[in-house]
Amino acid sequence: MRDAIQSDLSTDLLDWYDRNARVMPWRVGPGDRAAGVMPDPYRVWLSEVMLQQTTVAAVRDYFTRFTTRWSTVQALAAAPDDQVMGEWAGLGYYARARNLLKCARVVADDYGGAFPDTYDALLKLPGIGPYTAAAIAAIAFDRPETVLDGNVERVMARLHDIHEPLPGSKPVLKNKAAALTPNTRPGDYAQAVMDLGATICTPKSPACGICPLRDPCQARAAGTQTDLPRKTPKKPKPTRYGHVYIAQREDGALLLERRPDKGLLGGMLGWPGSDWSDTPVNTPPFSADWQELAGEVRHTFTHFHLILRIWTAPLPAGLHPHRLIVLDKHAFRPSDLPTVMRKAHDLWRNR
DNA sequence: CACACGTGGTG
DNA sequence: TCACCAAGTGT
Asked: For the HhH-GPD domain, which residue ranges apply (predicted)?
């Protein structure tokens, strides 16, 4: 039995969370959870997948639109692929959307619409890796699993003043995080430690003065907090070039393509175009008097910069190039495009 | 293990 | 302007 006077780190963190928990559309706050309210696993799963490498601010509206349009995993599983990809457009990492649908269909078809409630079973589902499996098990099912995301890595590296760089230090950080994971309120605890990293123990200017872990924090004692966690240096981004072709019919219809499932922007709607390379081959989708627009589209992906030239031509009535999509004026929504393609559309529209 | 995979905010 | 960074996963 733990001494009621002595407070350990996880208790301090939970106390802090009880006072500072941020309100989010997918979250059941500590007060409601204490009253027996459990989160909807569908909403926990959807939010966690959206939050992979993505900020809360960027996710909020997407989450609301998704849950308004598809309120259950069965509803999502029954949705056409292009509607889900269109709703995800702009959020990035589009493999998440493809895996989201795969996962929804497995849960609907093989689990009767009820998400599995263990780490091991969750980990087998598409798009659910070690972090997300632990997060769903902890948050949705209150299992004492240890979440290890960028926030927790930073908090643990600082708390224990660990100087070994990521990703090599990941196993050590995971052990440290596991040692702190409590058996009581593990769902609130998982959110507490991530909230701490997101709001107090931030990468650039941590607010150590108001941190609930300021006393035991070894990096703060050593003055090394802003140097941690160390990371192995990243490779420089090369610049690639490309051409895109925007053709419009007199009635307003536009010529687009559905990108292949594999690779960059996989499964997304886009403009037909060249390869993206040092010296892209300028090969329009049909013969016409293509005009090059003034200006260019600049966009940065995870691992390269891209500069696109935009070409335009009238689309002859009756022409429908093989494997391309002719979208009626009213069926085309710019918001269905990934951001780089939307930038090209903006440049063309304002020509 | 290293790399591919988006985007928007921040300093 | 630009590198870094965000509730990572799949290959």
From this structure: 50-199
* CATH architecture, domain defined by A239-349: Alpha-Beta Complex (3.90)
For chain A, the structural domain boundaries read 9-227, 239-349
A98 CA → C11 C1’, Å: 16
A305 CA to C1 C1' distance (Å): 14
Q: How many Å from the CA of A2 to C1' of C10?
A: 43
Strand C footprint at Cβ < 7 Å? A 22, 24, 27, 47-48, 51-56, 93, 95, 99, 126-133, 135, 149-151, 154, 191, 194-195, 197-198, 203, 231, 233-234, 236-237, 302
Reported as a single tens digit per residue, the pLDDT across A90-117 is 999 999 999 999 999 999 999 999 999 9
Q: Is the pLDDT of residue A4 over 50?
A: no
Strand C, nucleotides < 7 Å from a protein CB: these are 3-10
Is the dihedral angle over the CA atoms A50, A53, A56, A58 positive or is it negative?
A: negative
pLDDT reading at A2 higher than 50: no
CATH, domain range A9-227: 1.10.340.30
Q: What integer is the mean pLDDT of A273-283?
A: 95
Please tell me the predicted confidence (pLDDT) of residue A233: 85
Calculate mean pLDDT across residues A301-306.
95
Q: Please, are residues A275 and A244 in contact by the beta-carbon 8 Å criterion?
A: no
Q: Give the catalytic positions of A in this structure.
A: 48
Q: Nearest residue (Cα to C1') for B9? A: A55
Q: pLDDT > 70: what percent of chain A?
A: 98
Torsion over CA of A314, A320, A321 and A324, rounded to 10 degrees? Answer: 100
**Residue A183 pLDDT exceeds 60:** yes
Q: State in Å, rounded, how far the first CA of chain A is from the last one.
A: 72
Between strands A305-314 and A239-248, the pairing is parallel
CA-nearest of A214, A177, A185, A235 to A30 is A185
